[in-house]
Amino acid sequence: MIRVEQLVQRPGRRTANMKKTILLVEDSKVQKLAGEKLLHRAGYLVLLAGDGEEGLSLARESRPDLILLDLRLPGIEGEEVLYALKRDPLTQQIPVIIVSDQAASNSAKLKASGAADYFEKSRFLASAEGEALFLGMIERVLRESESRSERAKEILPLARRQGA
Q1: Which of 24, 45, 142, 153 has its CA 20 to 30 A from that of 97?
Q2: pLDDT at 11
């Protein structure tokens, strides 16, 4: 596991070709290991949390580029972690993909609460095609987040000028 202190970066110091940091919040050791291996192979820096409380703490401390969040966690459930992340000014802009073994029946509710997307674990554990779909989703969500961030940077100076 990578230590958080090694990953905390100052704003503006990241180069365009550096890989992103992903926080994986998962209590299952088997699924955590599988996710970590897959993400490392894809070139991501990976932070691991075994429960909701640790996930919230690491998210606030390290501000990863993306959070992969299980719903069934010991202590604070994943849905509560999502709500807490989206209410916190330090973490509300970090995209969160729900990765769960629960059916996607409540995915619309989770997306309305701030989740960027929803992926069923069984799909990425089942095949290379599932892994490719999962990694594709991660890349898409990261691109969308980066695009929103760039637009916000462009809009902010305009808003300041209009308000002055």
Answers
A1: 153
A2: 38
